[in-house]
Specification:
This protein is mainly alpha-helical. It has one domain (2-99). It has 3 helices and no strands. It has helices spanning 2-40, 47-67, 74-99. α1 packs across α2, α1 (2-40) packs across α3 and α2 (47-67) crosses α3 (74-99). The longest helix has 39 residues, at 2-40. The chain is elongated and about 60 Å long.
C-alpha cells in the first residue's frame, strides 16, 4: 500500500513538472517570436506566428550556439537562445522573400 501511494505521488509530481515545462516552453516561444519580430520587422506577427517563430528559433538558436560551444542557463538564457535563433530565422526568410 505504501509503495503504491509513493508511486502515484511520483507520477503526479512528474506530470505537474512536465506541464510546467511545456507552459514555459510556450511562453518563451511567444516572447522570443515577439522580440524577434520587433528586431527584424518592427513589430509582432500575431500570436500563432510569434509562437511558431519562437519555437523554431529556440531549435535553431540551440544548434547555432552549440556549434560555438556557447550555452546559456536558466529561463533568461533560454529566452536569449530562442531570440537569437528566431532573429536568424526571420533574417533568412526576409532574404528569401527579397529574391522573389
Amino acid at each position: 500500500m505504501k509503495i503504491s501511494i509513493v508511486v502515484q505521488i511520483n507520477i503526479l509530481s512528474n506530470l505537474k513538472q512536465n506541464i510546467m515545462e511545456f507552459l514555459w516552453f510556450i511562453l518563451i516561444g511567444l516572447a522570443a517570436g515577439y522580440l524577434a519580430g520587433l528586431i527584424i520587422k518592427g513589430g509582432g506577427m500575431g500570436l500563432i506566428w510569434n509562437l511558431i517563430t519562437g519555437v523554431l528559433g529556440a531549435v535553431i538558436g540551440g544548434r547555432l550556439l552549440s556549434l560555438f560551444n556557447v550555452h546559456f542557463g536558466g529561463l533568461v538564457g533560454q529566452l536569449i537562445t530562442a531570440v537569437i535563433g528566431a532573429v536568424v530565422l526571420l533574417w533568412i526568410v526576409t532574404l528569401v522573400q527579397k529574391k522573389k
